[in-house]
Amino acid sequence: MSGTPAPHPRKPERFPGFDALSQSGAWDPVTAEVVLSRLDPFGDLIFFTDAEQATALALTDQLLDQQGDRLVPVVAMIDTRLGRSQTDGWHYADLPEDAQAWRASLAHLDSDARRRDGQCFAECDRGEQAAIISAIQELGAASWHGLPAARVWSLWTRYACTAFYSHPLAWNEMGFNGPAYPRGYKNLGINSLEPFEVRDTQPANDPVRATQP
């Protein structure tokens, strides 16, 4: 199965008018430089091949539901980390080091897709992509192409979420105004807002609340 995904509609804003970058003047210079540099265009790939990039884009789109506009350059950020060996400083003993594990797991994704649909993972429609990665997640600690499936899932989500939630455009989606240093906070307490914060217009859709009994 193949096809071009339909344009992904933007979700209604939960924090209308909020812009984390408007608070950059309150950050210390070093922090501001680090955060604002994440808005700079990324150059050529330094780790992924073109084929691996396509597979990684399709994978992270599934994990983060960011397809269509791709506001946060997740794969480019992962590529930079792996190319510069900027890992977390550890890896699972039963999984290769991160760079090797990424290459192997992306190749296995394409292998699964070709076996199921006769084409690489990026060329499958979104439903098929979701089915493929869901099957991997459901394996738990069992082996997937000789790798512990749960460890691979952890690798993917760890890198994807670290990239996504380090970007100020992602902060806008959750009303996070960025680093608190050196300004700090003065209005402490549940539902207490700072003057620069915006109240959530869709509290019923809070994913944290949705998981609570």
Explain the overall architecture.
By secondary structure, this protein is mainly alpha-helical. It is 45% helix and 2% strand. It has helices at residues 29-37, 50-64, 74-83, 98-117, 126-138, 149-165, 168-174, 207-210, and strands at 143-144, 147-148. It has a two-stranded antiparallel ribbon with strand order 1-2. The model is unreliable at 1-10 (pLDDT under 50).
Sequence stretches where pLDDT stays below 50 over 5 or more residues? 1-10
Radius of gyration: 19 Å
> Kindly state the mean pLDDT as a whole number?
88
**Span between N and C termini?**
39 Å
Q: Return the structural class.
A: mainly alpha
Estimate percent helicity: 40-55%
Task: Name the strands of the widest sheet in spatial order.
Answer: 1-2
Which outline best applies? globular
What can be said about the biggest beta sheet?
A: 2 strands, antiparallel
The proportion of residues in beta strands is under 5%
* Count of separate DSSP helical elements: 8
What are the key terms here?
single chain; 213 residues; mainly alpha; two-stranded antiparallel sheet; 8 helices; 45% helix; globular; disordered N terminus
Task: Describe the SSE topology.
Elements (H helix, E strand, L loop, with lengths): L28 H9 L12 H15 L9 H10 L14 H20 L8 H13 L4 E2 L2 E2 H17 L2 H7 L32 H4 L3
Antiparallel strand pairs: 1-2
Helix pairs in contact: 3-6, 4-5
